[in-house]
Amino acid sequence: MEKGNANVGCDLRKQEEVMEVTGLGLSNKKDENFGEWYSEVVLKGELIEYHPISGCYVLRPWTMSIWNAMKKFFDAEIEKLGIVDAKFPLFVNSDDLRREKDHIDGFAPEVAWVTKTGKSDLEVPIAIRPTSETVMYPYFSKWVREHHDLPLKLNQWCNVVRWEFSNPTPFIRSREFDWQEGHTAFATKEEADADVEEILELYRRIYEEYLAVPVIKGKKSELEKFSGGLYTTTVEAFIPNTGRGIQGATSHSLGQNFAKVFNINFQNEKGEKAMVWQNSWAFSTRTIGVMVMVHGDDKGLVLPPKVASAQVIVVPVPYKDADSREIFHACTSTVNTLKKAGIRVLADFRDYSPGWKYSHWEMKGVPLRIEIGPKDLRNGQVRVVCRDNSAKIDVPVANLVEQVNQLLATIQQRLFEVAKQKRDACTQIVTTWDEFIEALGQRKLILAPWCDEKEVEKVVKARTRNEMGACKTLCSPFEQPKLPEGTLCFASGKIAKKWTYWGRRC
Q1: What are the DSSP calls for 6-37, one per residue?
Q2: In 108, 126, 242, 473, which residue has its Cα 20 to 30 A from 489's Cα atom?
Q3: 136, 169 in Cβ contact below 8 A?
């Protein structure tokens, strides 16, 4: 476990090593050296640059276009739910941060503190938000007085800092990251529960409909739920190449825990004093790392069309003695035609060989490549190449817009279906401890009957802990398979209460 600034600069050394041994292509293969492959892809795919402070990364425009596509979808959907934007400070008063004991105990190792300004020590240290419950809820207590003030539904797009961790990984595990965080307050538990479910469904849609990554909707165990919360729901993804689960996004019911601490009370319709029911929910730039891990290949990124900054790249292929001007004109005309149809498209007229351009844009994951050469001009067509499976199709210019739109939709769906097939092939149902250990050794996503006891989960974590980490519960899926009467827990031998997914985490 790294402490403080011990690893400052280690990420930059990683960048230097990657750049030293690689040319345009990748030197590592996804199936052979996943960690090094991932580091190469996010760097050479122009998603990030490394920063001198370990665990902090520069997010490049290619990344921000993906993030903004998700943001645009999410903003439109939460607006329908009456959720509005706000912005709260980066800094947290230390007294407020410590007011909810379970909450601060859960985050204490990750909280970064400001203790000096210039050469002077601060009289009272100030925390940098690891999340914003304790920043926002003192104001909730001011703004909520009667039932007419409810529901209160706020969202903010911001960055947070969580300092203590091991093995920094771009997008997946970083000290500073971007996210949205929503905070809501309701008069009744029923309203709050409905809000948890509505937001979780939006997170599922982000992963499955935009990033083409299959996820499992479910509930976290008591041991793994949000610190200070009543219960936590989640969408869980799985990385077949590593055999590890990854928490995709979470929607938490906070119950009345924070309302008690921060005195968020209101006068209900009967004139009685009551406490609000609260939720918080968030997804972060981790989503982008999950997408890269699931879809990327040995040529680089593979971007789903819905989030790709450029959905199509047009490359001129001028052979010797060919009329380059006519080819370039055809490329420009193609770009203009596709742009008018709302397709995100670029042309590459740089003075590099077509082969170099192909590799460059494959590395960046552009879903479709259009090649235009002398033969294509003669035949009134363009050559279209799909990034995900390298399929080549000759498309008449007259049908270009229709065909490109159809291909983009096909690629989006195909990426999801292939990812789901790979995940499902790694999923194994077990009913005994021996089966569980065997499946864990084979890096499976494990579904097992469980007694739902916290102490049993602690025992499983302890018995499976090794250099690869401990096995944890990922979630108990909302869609529960049938549990035959008398089924025993795989770990304790007690009567099982539910099916639960288990695995090691990224």
Answers
A1: TTTTHHHHHHHHHHHH--SS-SS-TTT-HHHH
A2: 242
A3: no
Model pTM score: 0.93
Which of 386, 416, 446 delimits the end of a domain?
416
- The model's pLDDT over 32-46, given as tens digits with 9 standing for 90+, comes to 999 999 999 999 999
Confidence of residue 11 (pLDDT cuts 50, 70, 90): low
Phi-psi region of 220 (alpha: psi -120 to 50; beta: other; left: phi over 0): beta
Q: What does the alpha-carbon distance between residue 334 and residue 343 come to, in Å, rounded to a whole number? A: 11
457-484 b/e with 16+ CB inside 10 Å = b?
beebbeebeeeeeebbbbbbbeeeeeee
Domains in the chain, number:
3
What pLDDT is recorded for position 158? 97
- Positive/negative CA dihedral, 459, 463, 469, 473: negative
Is 216 part of a structural domain of the chain? Answer: yes
- Taking alpha carbons only, the member of 137, 42, 125 closest to residue 88 is 137
Q: Residue 329: how many CB atoms within 10 A of its CB?
A: 14
Q: What is the pLDDT of residue 19?
A: 45
Domain with residue 464: its CATH number is: 3.30.110.30
Which residue shows structure tokens 């703004």? 143
Question: Which of 367, 394, 416 is at the close of a domain?
Answer: 416
pLDDT of residue 18: 45
Quick one: which of 129, 139, 138 has its CA closest to 104?
Answer: 129
Domain that holds residue 123: 10-295
Contact 203, 235 (CB under 8 A): yes
Q: Same domain for 291 and 161? A: yes
482 belongs to a structural domain: yes
| Tokens representing residue 363 in the block | 């590395």
At residue 290, the 3 state secondary structure works out as helix
pLDDT tens for 87-107 read: 999 998 888 887 766 766 777
